[in-house]
Every structure is written in C-alpha cells, then in structure tokens.
Amino acid sequence: xxxxxxxxAFWFEFASPYCYLTAMRIERLAAAAGIRIAxxxxxxxxxxxxxxxQPSPAQDAPPPEARYRQRDVERLCLDYGLPLxxxxxxxxxxxxxxxxxxxxxDEGWAPAFVKAVYHASFAEDRDIGAEPVIAAILxxxxxxxxxxxxxxxxxxxxxxxxAQVEQAVAAGIFGAPSxxxxxxxxxxxxxxLEQALAWATAKRG
Amino acid sequence: xxxxxxxxAFWFEFASPYCYLTAMRIERLAAAAGIRIAxxxxxxxxxxxxxxxQPSPAQDAPPPEARYRQRDVERLCLDYGLPLxxxxxxxxxxxxxxxxxxxxxDEGWAPAFVKAVYHASFAEDRDIGAEPVIAAILxxxxxxxxxxxxxxxxxxxxxxxxAQVEQAVAAGIFGAPSxxxxxxxxxxxxxxLEQALAWATAKRG
Lengths: 205, 205
Known about the structure:
Chain A is globular, with a radius of gyration of 16 Å. Chain A contains ten helices and four strands. Chain A has a four-stranded mixed β-sheet with strand order 2-1-3-4, sandwiched between helices. Chain A is α+β, with helices and mostly antiparallel strands and 205 residues long. In chain A, helix 5 (95-107) runs antiparallel to helix 6 (110-122) and helix 5 packs across helix 9. Chain A has helices at residues 17-23, 26-33, 45-49, 63-80, 95-107, 110-122, 131-140, 145-152, 155-170, 193-204, and strands at residues 7-12, 36-41, 178-180, 186-188. The two termini of chain A are 20 Å apart. Chain A has one domain (7-204): Glutaredoxin (3-Layer(aba) Sandwich). In chain A, strand 3 and strand 4 (186-188) form a beta hairpin.
C-alpha cells in the first residue's frame, strides 16, 4: 500500500483492547510528530482462522496469560488515564463497526467514530456487535444512523472490508494494532506506536 | 516468592532475544531507580510444552510473525545501540547456561555471566548450548570452568533449575522476560521493564 510520506497507517480491530489504548492516544502523538494518520479498520478473526493450531490471543489464551493480558491493559489504562470496564463478553464482534469505520475514514469522521466505539466497548461495556449500539454511537456523533448503516452493509462495502483483510495479510500484518509507514515498514502493538511515529518522521524528510 | 521490598525479580531465558535486550539494559535502569535485581534463570521450553496447541513463539510462529519478530529485535537493538547477529540456529539451547546462572546468582556474578552469554548468542552467534562455549565464557570472566560446570551439573543443581520452572509457573509466568515485584505483581516483556521498575519503586516506600 502506498501512502504519502507524512502518513502512518493505523490498522485497528475493534475487539482489541490494545487498539483501544492506541486509538485514544494516536491523534495527540501524531499531531506532535507532524504525521497524518490513515485509519484502517480490519478484522483479525479471518487472519487467526488461517493459522492452524495458532489460537487467537484473545479467545484461546491459557488462563495465566489471559489474566495477565487483562491486568496489563488495566495497568496501562491507569498510566494513560483511560477508563476501563472489561467487556463482559470478550472479544466483542467488530464486523458492523468496521464496516461503518470504512465509510468514516473516507468521509473524515473516523477519529471521532473509532474512539466512540472503543469507549463504548472498553469503558461502558456496551455490545458494539449489536446494530442498536452502533446506531446510538452514530446518532451521538450527529449522523443519521439508518442511511449510514445501509451504506455500510451494501455488498460493495462488505467486499471492501474483506479486501482490507487481504491487504493487511499482504502487508505482513498478523495482529493489532499495527502501523505501516510510507516505506512499508511494519510495527505491531500499542507498545510500538511511538517508535512507528518516530520512524515515519525520520523517513518523511 | 518473597523478595525484599526494594527488589525486582528478573526471570530470563537464554534463548530469548527479548531477554537479551533486557539483560543489557536492566542494571543501568535499576541503579537509577534504586532497585536491586534478583537474577532468576529459568526455561520456557517445559512451560510451552504444557500448552496443548499453544506453540512456542520462537519455534512455531507463522512466517510473517517470525520475520516481524526478528525485524522488531533488529530495530530495538538499533535504538538501544546493541550489536545483533541473529543466531544461525534459533532458538539456542539454554540448559547449561541456566544451570550455571543459578550458581552465579548465588555467588554475585550473575550480571557479568548472564550478559556474556547473551552477547555470545546474539552478538557473536556462538552456540551457547555447547559446553565449550560456556566454558570459554567462564574463563573469560576469570572462573575456572571445569569446577563451575561440575557444580552446575550436579543432580541437586539440575533439580534446582527444574524447581525454578515450577516456581515461575506458580507465579503466573508464561513468557520471558518477566519481572515480579515484591508484592507479587507480574510484568511480561522487555517493553515492561521501565513500568516494572516504576512499580517496584512506588511500592518500596
């Protein structure tokens, strides 16, 4: 994928708590670095499913690792000053939200929508897989929900999200959040956000 | 495991490149924080083997993830100013080094020995699973290698390393590097070293 040289692509999956941590921080850090963010929704489920015996870190982690993962997110939320209510059903289904986010990215309202979906899921424990919840988020942001959801669920937009997944795989992505700089350099994990922005800044000049 | 309140336990596996990154940084950062490090060698192999369908991240990662992991370590070495030559056989066998490291930790020479083993493996691509390599490292540090290796490979010391693994599992450890504060708080990954030291500092008072 080609990007302008001052752009970093942020590949996010709404089910991922580490993407929540990134989504809430990336605008401020990118602005400070003078880097534009390309908001790229995608789904990890179809990627994990292609890995025989390679379980999903969210769904199939052994208990000590699952407990650790939740504690790690709790600590990071404390460090970042972010609210956290662990989703009562985890992971949440991210399909509709991701389809809407594709439109939002086209039309310039991705940051507000994406942050609102993460907040609903990880601060308010709302079921972001349910259409009424996505509709309520859209309404709160000033969008008439029905036409947006109708556009998000056309066959063409569904195919577009499937194509996002293929594009992610082609770029070497295997987890989320992931960041891709204009030169194709891939970074994985909320822990690499700062490094990815520094890379994008250094390569921009 | 009980530690003094100003101590952070550093659990390391010689096969892990992320432990190399930590081993080369931890003394300086711990000294700056006023925290003592308890050097705790252990083996990840027996822990991974207990996880059905839960492959080793080093040995069984799908190719994109394995490539990414190596690139990630390369970038971090550049950031930290550390040399890196990826081991031509990966992962290396860490058994003898870990047995010696237990003695080293008892006798106060763990930092020098542990760093020398990581340097041999990840900067010089030497086979740290081979006894002559461990012997050469010991010699270079001023230890007569044969008596040390003899003590390291007694049944009692072998059992002690096996007990380390059980202690790690009991503490919730599932990867390396891991850090455990005096209050039992667990941190996983080179990325969490600074956070673990900050935690240990805050809880010390």
